[in-house]
Specification:
DUF6636, 46% strand, single chain, 125 residues, mainly beta, 6-stranded mixed sheet, 11 strands
């Protein structure tokens, strides 16, 4: 079991991954993680594309909904964010994110849906 903190906006120790967890009642609950530089091939853009926004660098998860890549013209990354150390879990509301040396794994504790994102690969569930 990893040590647990309650940070809603953080980055990986490498600074290449950044995540934001929203579960405060002000907006729909979700967790989003962005990878600044990646070598994996993202899935095909959704039907209709993403227009002027980017695709392939942001994964989101909402309660009860499988994780998916999203269109995003912005980023949650900021070099001033706190670092979620390897081997540490952040839990906010119904979401948890584990910082591992091979990426960040975030899960919806209520449904069991999750994703993993890293520089070289990703997994969606």
């Amino acid at each position: 079991m990893y040590p647990t903190v309650h940070i809603d906006h953080f980055q990986s120790p490498s600074g290449n991954l950044a995540c934001m967890i929203i579960d405060d009642g002000s907006a729909p609950s979700s967790v989003r993680c962005d990878v600044l530089s990646h070598t994996f091939t993202p899935p095909q853009e959704p039907p209709g594309g993403c227009g002027a926004t980017g695709f392939g660098s942001s994964i989101a998860l909402a309660p009860g909904v499988p994780a998916r890549f999203i269109c995003a013209g912005d980023t949650v990354a900021d070099p001033s964010l706190p670092v979620l150390a390897y081997g540490t879990t952040s839990v906010v509301g119904t979401f948890s994110c584990d910082s591992k040396e091979d990426g960040i794994v975030c899960a919806d504790l209520g449904s069991g849906h999750w994703f993993r994102i890293a520089k070289a690969s990703y997994s969606l569930n």
